[in-house]
Amino acid sequence: MIQLCKFNTIGMPFNFKKLLKRDNFSGHVNYSAPELILEKMHFSSKVDIWSLGCCIYFMLAKKDPFDGRTPQETKFNILNHQFDRQMNLQKFCNEKITDPLLQNILMNCLALNENARPSCRQVAEMLENFQSEENSIDMGKKISKNGLNTSY
């Protein structure tokens, strides 16, 4: 088993001011999907796809997505795809992510319209494609160094 990231062991966020808590939902505001920010009564599992996109962003940028000085500013940033005052989602993908497949995964997971977000199965397929591309690039590097396949 591979551990991708480690969460707080006691299950509580470090910054309690950024915790949203309702009857049918609780979580960190920075990772909350727009439909949760808009307090829609019914939402789908696509909110988890949004959160996955936020986790991917965190692993790439090493900071929380959509961070604001207040929870209200963070909510504004989410609804407007602003990671901070200088960087929106499209600009971040264009400037900070060189791999088009990874750009695609992040853009799709963080689609404002929940119906435009992929399903869990579709995300898994995108990640498999990303992994396949990485393996073929690694294989190409091993072959191109000395002309022999040294991967076995």
Key terms for this structure?
152 residues, mainly alpha, Transferase(Phosphotransferase), domain 1, two-stranded antiparallel ribbon, 2 strands, globular, disordered C terminus
What is the secondary structure topology, with strand pairs?
Layout: E1 19-21, E2 26-28, H1 34-37, H2 46-61, H3 71-79, H4 89-96, H5 100-109, H6 120-146
Antiparallel strand pairs: 1-2
Helix pairs in contact: 2-5, 5-6
CATH topology description: Transferase(Phosphotransferase), domain 1
* Order of SSEs: EEHHHHHH
Distance between the termini: 22 Å
Topology, number of strands: 2
Dominant shape: globular
Low-pLDDT segments, ≥5 res: 7-17, 139-152
